[in-house]
Amino acid sequence: MKNEGKKAIWSEYQKEIADDNFFYVRSCIRQNFFPGSEVAFLRILRDVLHKDVFEHPCHTTCSGIGYHGDVVPVETAMTVVARQFALMTEAGYKNYVPSCITSFGLYTEILDTWHHFPEVEEKVRMQLKKATGRDFEKPENLAHASDVIYKFRKEIAAKAKYKLINKETGEPLKVVDHIGCHYSKMFPSKGVGGAEYPYVLTGMIEEWGGEVVDYPERRHCCGFGFRQYLVQANRGFSIACSKEKFESMKPYKPDMIITNCPGCPMFLDRWQYVINEMEGKTYGQNGKGIPVFTYEEVAGLVLGYDPWDLGLQMHQTDCEPLLNKIGIEYSKEDKYNLKVLPAYTENHNLVNV
Amino acid sequence: MRKHVVVIGGGVAGLEAAGQLTKVGVDVSLIEKESKTGGNLNKWFKLFPDRRSSSEVKNYLDGMTVNNGINLHTNATIEKFSRSKSSFSITTNAGKELKADAVIVATGFDLFKSERKEEYGYGIYDNVISSADLEEMFRKGIIAKTNGAEPEKIGIIHCVGSRDEKVGNFYCSKLCCVTAVKQAIEIREMLPESKVFCFYMDMRMGGALYEEMYREAQQKWGVNFIRGKVSEASETIENQLMIKVEDTLAGRPLKMKLDMLVLMAGMEMSKGGKKIASISGLHTGENRFFAATDNHFGNNKSNVEGVFYAGTCTAPMNITETISHARAAVLEVMDYLTDSKI
């Protein structure tokens, strides 16, 4: 494999990512799946990088999960999205940062549709006005939250307590990066590194000391795939997809998986447990699973956050093998001894609505 | 007074046109951007359908031109192009100004850059090569992987950069199917133990003796033709290639490990042609090739009086068609020089 070829592609797919003043919108499902990730993003942006990040309490689902699940029509989705933009406009922000990959894909698709079909945008504006009395401006900059962490990956590395390095061997950890399908497969130019060899997570891994594993099923779906899982009869297909990936990555002996999508870490994490239960099969080393993380969790670990503050006890595939490899300090006793983080128990940017 | 025609491009069309013009007593200046003539012909070892050596054709063309008194400018590109009344002024990158009574544009084609089909991993995965790379292997007489070993299973992907909305090329490059068939046979001849799989959308064998070659490839050489577009290639830990493709006749997806993958790169308007279009006011079509004024009666004529087209600068065509097209361009030029009372 020739890395020069990838570098040439990466150089063609760079995007503008705002530097500050972010309007951050959470995912519908991430807070249930991995509740520490979005908080970690806010802590890193605000406390470590000293950026202005605003959250609006009236933000709702973007409806992307319904749109891609074939139950929400696109015009409805557009009007919901228009309302989110109205919230951003009212709050005085211009840099829109969704936490969810599908939201990012949906926003990208809608902005592109409006660009090519301005009459559709006008119709949506009218619908929103009639329904809510709201007007909106389109974002000046749209970046996924992983784009933002990618942008500040060097700053995070400069403040890192740990590196993605095996403390025993001194070797870089082997990291599988998995990109959510809706990040750049629909609009390659909107993703860092494009669609075929995305760089957004690779850039973080390289900067933080790890080594990316390129395995044959790297582009394959994680197994969520919306209808694969949302339609109950298809769930066998969902786990089969995940298994395909695990089988493909196993020979490379990866130390961890890092993802940037709400569904991917969920399915890559949970299905490992299920496969173990069904077939007694594991894909990590020493009979364990391969720990799966969100990029916020990895950034938090690198910065020295307590693993349990990051919510790693919510993972079904134990994360401890990775923590031990890096040499991250943690308390076994505190794993399920949940504590409340005072700074983030309430939205300190709460506005009157 | 002898007429002077500038021919832009020293590939098959340009050489043929220049040679025919000298035959009828016209002074010719031939401008070629490379250090030698021949264009894309130089990249090919043997030609379909009869596997004649490309050097034979090259020798024929050189015999008519390079050795026949034409004024050849190599390493030359065109920086200025203007028309005043019935005379053209063309300035090269060397600052040489050429006056001409007529111009033949024969800027040919560029092979589609296979790395643009990112999913196939050209330039990234070892042993993903283009059809032109394979010709180079034929020329050297050895088909080998990057580690020097002989490949046992070889895949050939048709339509790389052709009939592909994603890369902006809707058109068929016409020659890739027959090139794939030719190369598949040549691989089997050189590596009798090998297995060759061609992945195609449609087999477009619309030329003399093409269909016969296609039949020979299947019956005599056992080449496997699978109707389906390869969706992606990747590399295994054993450094083998793995492709995913849907066999649309069997109606099922396939995953296959290969030792080598050959991409049948399509044809695109050449970079030189694009530059000339931008400085001359010559029209290009939706496919970005030069647009002739009439598809039936004016296939060599441009929108600028006195400028004519020859060969693949207007559309993909094979060497036979290119030579015919170049000869037709010469007829148009002579007609123009005679009638225009210059």
Task: Give a verbal description of the structure.
The complex is a heterodimer of chains A (353) and B (342). By secondary structure, chain A is an alpha/beta fold. Chain A contains 16 helices and 8 strands. Chain A is globular. Chain B has 7 helices and 20 strands. In chain B, helix 1 (12-23) runs parallel beside helix 2 (54-64) and helix 1 crosses helix 7. Chain B is of the alpha/beta class and 342 residues long. Chain B has 2 domains: 4-108 and 270-339, FAD/NAD(P)-binding domain (3-Layer(bba) Sandwich), CATH 3.50.50; 114-266, FAD/NAD(P)-binding domain (3-Layer(bba) Sandwich), CATH 3.50.50. In chain B, helix 5 (210-219) links the parallel strand 13 (195-200) and strand 14. In chain B, 26% of the residues lie in helices and 27% in strands. At the A-B interface, helix 1 of A face strand 15 of B.
Question: How do the helices and strands line up, and which of them pair or pack?
Answer:
The complex is a heterodimer of chains A (353) and B (342).
Chain A: H1 3-12, E1 22-25, H2 30-33, H3 36-48, E2 53-55, H4 64-68, H5 74-91, E3 95-98, H6 101-116, H7 118-132, E4 141-142, H8 145-151, H9 153-158, E5 174-178, H10 181-184, H11 200-207, E6 211-212, H12 227-230, H13 235-249, E7 256-259, H14 263-279, E8 292-294, H15 295-303, H16 320-326
Chain B: E1 4-8, H1 12-23, E2 27-31, E3 46-47, E4 52-53, H2 54-64, E5 71-73, E6 78-84, E7 87-92, E8 97-100, E9 102-105, E10 109-111, E11 128-130, H3 131-140, E12 153-160, H4 176-190, E13 195-200, H5 210-219, E14 224-227, E15 230-235, E16 241-247, E17 252-258, E18 260-265, E19 267-269, H6 271-280, E20 307-309, H7 319-339
Parallel strand pairs in B: 1-2, 1-9, 2-5, 9-20, 11-18, 12-13, 12-18, 13-14
Antiparallel strand pairs in B: 3-4, 6-7, 7-8, 10-19, 15-16, 16-17
Helix pairs in contact in B: 1-2, 1-7, 3-4, 4-5
